[in-house]
Amino acid sequence: MHTHDLARNALSRGQPTHGADKAEDLERLVALHGAETIAAVIVEPVAGSAGVLPPPVGYLERLREICTKYGILLIFDEVITGFGRLGAPFASQVFGVTPDIMTTAKGVTNGVFPMGAVFAGRHVHDAIVQGPAGAIELFHGYTYSGHPSACAAGLATLEIYRREGLLTRVGDLAQGFEDAVHGLKGPPHVIDVRNLGLMAGIELRPRDGAPGARGLEAHVKAFEAGALIRYTGDIIALSPPLIATPDELARLVGIVGAVLDTID
Which domains does the chain carry? Predict the structure, then answer.
């Protein structure tokens, strides 16, 4: 099965539908300000820290169409979704949408050493490097750019991805993980569950006058029970390791479920 079709089969049960119309906001901005004033549109294919929010169906595709129409660069922030998180090497392949620029980090070195990488289309590359003779192509720099230790960690990580097939392994785990996390819908304060690949968001109803309190309580109780989870306000975010076994994923979701049953 083609990578795009395989990844599409793993899309979230909670993925919003009819999303192309939401992208029309960009058309309205172009009409209001002029396309020449908009350099780029930057999006996370799946918003991570905002609460694991899969894009509405057709949203990214329509953004690509509008950006192409007006000569606006489309930039994907794949710091979270990149390097196998969704069942394909990058989310752009999951959705079949190719950005002009892609930013990445974390997964480049498995998060053990600070490093980021930016990928750009040939048209972006050529626009940068084919400048006046004698000019510096991209006049920027950082003190630790190309740090040899980070590069060594990156090369080692990429080799492990290749050797162990980790960039596509999520395709074998996603369905079981999805079924498990959607089994957390029982408690009345769980108001939504959404997932894609090995990403899941469990949204809790905020307590009156204490937004975020339920999320924090879930975080603390899960840690005490042996699972480190993230939370954003009242949204629990799960992003387990790509090397996790089905049993380990079941244990993680089981701990979260037990914790949710103890929260009022």
Answer: 3-164 (3.40.640.10), 170-262 (3.90.1150.10)
